[in-house]
Here is the input.
Amino acid sequence: MVFGVIVALLTLPIVVPAAGFASRYVPGKWRIARIVWFLFLYLAIEAISLIALFGLWVASGFGWKLKTAEFQVAHYQLFGWMLRRMVASAKLTFRVAIDREGPRSRASTNGRRRPVIVLSRHAGPGDSMMLMDRLTNLYQRRPRIVLKEFLQWDPALDVMLHRIPAAFVPLGRAAGDAVIEEIARLAGTMGEADALVIFPEGANYTPKRARRAVEKLHDIGRPDLAERAEQLRNTLPPKSKGVMTAIAQAPTPTDVFVVGHAGLETFATPGDIWRGMPLDTRVAVRVWHIPAEQVPPPEEQEGWLFDLWSEVDAWITERLTTTGEPFDDPHAY
Here is the structure.
């Protein structure tokens, strides 16, 4: 990765003008030039992060003190810098603005912070990156997340998330039990500044996945939930086991936040992004806060989660009429 940045720097005086020239013959506003520039920034952020991670490893006694509080703080600060730079680069390159809705509640008891569980909708590219950026840099939370193992191909992300509380799990059905075990492990050791991030849908929404989810609920003998799932228009039905495990294992009190967003649905694949470049889109984000005292007992949590997701789905359906539109301020956040 570091070698790649050196090569990119040396060839930048040739590549950038060539990309600009080629962009004149490709539909879109400087499409090729934007992609080249973003890839260069991405490589640079990765290389700087890897060098910094190596420095932290050396400073910790070649890994001896990596898990101490001092070096955990240093890694979260570096993680915050990585997220901030990547999100800022993506927003500038792809022209994406974010409008936040909902109360700006903070989880605390008598001035002391509480750990939180964040349940987020999963849709579009980069939603998890934007969410982690907000948690780390705006709310000064330490995010914990369960990721699919193929994301370990990102070198800096691979090294970073093996040093702070996080987990990589396999794809497909084999991930089921592993995901629940990792959620229980991460939830059970949360401190007051931690935020466990869960995507209850498990994947981006598609009509095919929605139909399969409804069929699965029928197959396991839950026609009541299948009927509710059929009413969802823009989200997959939430998988309750992981959420219930997190709530059960988390320290008391732990608040729950639900995050919905609308505006990235039409850019689900690299091809969509390429055709839409620059995206010139406005993304709406809505946050619901459920204090620990209002979280229902385990026997009611499944229905409660479907109620929450129905509200998220209704909000998304309403917002899709106004999101994805061009905006005037490319730096709005």
The beta strands are 96-101, 108-109, 112-113, 116-120, 142-148, 167-169, 194-198, 255-262, 281-290.
